[in-house]
Amino acid sequence: MADGTSVPIDVIAPARVRARRNTMQRFAQRRSTTGFLLCLPLILLIAAFVIYPAFYAIYLSMLNKKMTAFVGLGNFQFLLKRHTFQLVIFQSCLFAVTSVVLKAVIGFILAHLMHNIPGKNQRIWRGLLLVPWVIPLALSTLTWWWMFDPSYSAFNWVLNQFGIANVPWLGVGWTARFCTIAVNVWYGTPFFMIMYLAALKSVPEQLYEAAAIDGANTIQKLFFVTLPMMRNIIAITVLFSLIVTFADFDIVRILTAGGPQDMTHVFATYAFQIGIQSGDIPLGAADSLFMFPILAFAAFFVLRGVTRRTKEIAA
Amino acid sequence: MAEVACRKVVKEYDAGVQAVKGIDLDIADHEFVVLVGPSGCGKSTTLRMIAGLEEVTSGEIWIDGDVVNDVPPRDRDIAMVFQNYALYPHMSVFDNMAFGLKLRKFPKHEISRRVDEAARILDITPLLDRKPRALSGGQRQRVAMGRAIVRNPKVFLFDEPLSNLDAKLRVQMRTEIKKVHQTVRTTTVYVTHDQVEAMTLADRVVVMNGGNIEQVGAPQELYHHPATRFVAGFIGSPAMNFLPCRVQDGANGGLAVRVTDSITLPIPPNRVDRYGKFKDRSMVLGLRPEHLFEYHEQAKPGWTRVDLPVDVVEPMGMETMVHFFVDGVPVCARVDPATHAEPNEILPLTADLNQMHLMEPETGRVV
Question: Mean pLDDT throughout A229-255?
Fold first, then answer.
């Protein structure tokens, strides 16, 4: 061996093995690989519980009632022609948009009030105002349902004290619509309040001082400092709440079950009614899929604005 | 442009803590006044009271001949530059500078004329379309100054504007601020904890400590004639040396200060009258490092030789700082870099006693 002419056995082959192992090691050591592996459990969860059901819903929506034949977009065409479904689209949009706007405005005002309560008291009020958001929605909605009861309810009792006749809160179309929105606003406002309060606290005090010296009054500070500084959080909360409110089921189901005359149905309750209660699962799937393009459209624009502004403000 | 005055101004916080304890201060038109002092001395609070951002507990603040205690900041016609600039992140540089004018409903052409003019003075014209995020610290500082300049207010207020900049930029911006003041001549109140900034910028320096004004004066006056031990120690870098001493009879009927058993320094004859009444009392001798230097054969009147054992030598290039201990008290001398000094060796030095200060240990008053 010392003469250098003979080649030891197994010299070449192990080198190749080593090379392969090195490749594996390098693969494992790459940051992106590690990142991917760490995310894998979540990716699998999402695939199993979000992506698969979504595609399954699309597939279902293209079947006939007995789920024996493929009908293409037939279910969608059928739904669009039905008067009830047109009501559902209108009510869903009315319910979601009005609720979100009211929640945002009231939440914004409450956050400002809260922000100006000094020290310890602020924590107490913050805790109290969060209560609606913490109680399970089904329970609190039941309570509201009692309060809206036409004969024995708290609201009508108060009205009676002032000599006003009973109001059939959940029995008349527009009043019932108002009630569902009111309960949703009551439930969702604390979320907005707490998000806006956090955002308010993150606006540097010196910006307000600079604005005060620049000559801004309270309203101008609100429009030129507070709102621009909070644009991102407002956009994200509104989008998030819009998604949740569009998909809301509990409130309408418990308060009115879609009535009177289907005037308070939203996508989710209507899907439940036709899909589960009436047993037409493909039609129910088609109904619930109508939410998707509306929300995707909103999400696209909102998130694009957020990304742009984040780049702008992050110093 | 206007004069500013504080009359017995007190600021007391909820817990009864007095941040400012009744100060009196007159600032003349066109003057550049610097409030300087350590953290918590009340300088920023004073400035914020002048701005109207803090309520005055008692006393009066005058701007341009009016008491402004109850006037909101926006009606005081002042402009302020903040330590962290406080630029509106969602507005471009132009809009940041124009904001105050827009709120005051200036016509568009006037706004753009003023902003362009200020941008020219501050050399930020190419940055006008950028957002603050895209600017460096120094550029943001300029924009913050530009925002103040365009308003052409009665008074400029600066709240530690250079603290967030690195050392080199700080020196550069210091010059810029001085240049801007020479151009626009607006009455300026400037707060800093950096005595070098105070000395270089100010027409008059106000040294504050613990909510009180220690001394008001021109930079040179504070340096040469400090009124208290605090001012003596605060102004000048490195700080003045303080040595406990005793005034006693000296040679030829004169006086001397005895610092240690081996160090007794003769008091210059022209100061004998001044210090005579403190004979046989414990005092504090103050001598700046620059007045304690290498030994010279040809001594001038008032110069005295002192031999001290070297502790640490710090060569700085144009000068060398040498540190000693005299009876456990640290002493610093500023010697010529050519001087040979080694730790633990005895270094002969000259003390220039014409520049000495003598203080009462109890009150800290310079006598």
Answer: 87
Do both A276 and A131 map to the same domain?
Answer: yes
Question: Contact B89/A229, CB-based, under 8 Å?
Answer: yes
User: Within a domain: residue A3?
Assistant: no
Asked if the C-beta of B71 comes within 8 angstroms of chain A's C-beta atoms, the answer is no
Q: Residue B330's beta-bridge partner residues? A: B325
One-letter amino acid identity for B107? Answer: P
Domain check: are A94 and A224 in the same one?
yes
Burial B80-113 (b: 16+ CB within 10 A, else e): bbbbbbbbbbbbbbbbbbbbbbbbeebeeeebee
Angstroms from A44 CA to nearest CA on chain B: 39
Q: Which chain B residues are Cβ-neighbours of A210 within 8 angstroms?
A: 80, 82, 86-88, 147
Measure the CA–CA gap between A145 and A154, rounded to whole angstroms: 10
Residue count of chain B: 367
pTM assigned to the model: 0.78
User: Considering CB atoms only, which of B82, B132, B133 is closest to A206?
Assistant: B82
Q: Are residues A291 and A160 in the same domain?
A: yes
The number of domains in chain A is 2
| A22 and A150 within one domain | no
Q: State pLDDT tens for residues B329-343.
A: 999 999 999 888 889
Looking at beta carbons, which residues of chain B come within 8 Å of A211?
A: 88, 99
Answer yes or no: do A44 and A118 share one domain. Answer: no
pLDDT one-digit tens code per residue, A167-177: 778 878 788 88
**Chain B neighbors of A309, CB-CB under 8 A:** 90
Nearest to A313 among B78, B79, B90 (CB): B90
CATH number for position A95: 1.10.3720.10
For range A236-250, the mean pLDDT: 87
CB contact under 8 A, B88 and A207: yes
A146 and A210: one domain?
yes
Pairing of strands B32-36, B204-209: parallel
Closest CB from A210, A225, A231 relative to B82: A210
Whether A33 and A144 map to the same domain: the answer is no
In a domain, A33, yes or no: yes
Q: Say what the ipTM of the complex is.
A: 0.82
Distance CA B189, CA B210 (A): 19
φ, ψ for residue B237, nearest 5 deg: -140, 125
Domain membership of residue A68 (yes or no) is no
Residue A213 domain boundaries: 74-314
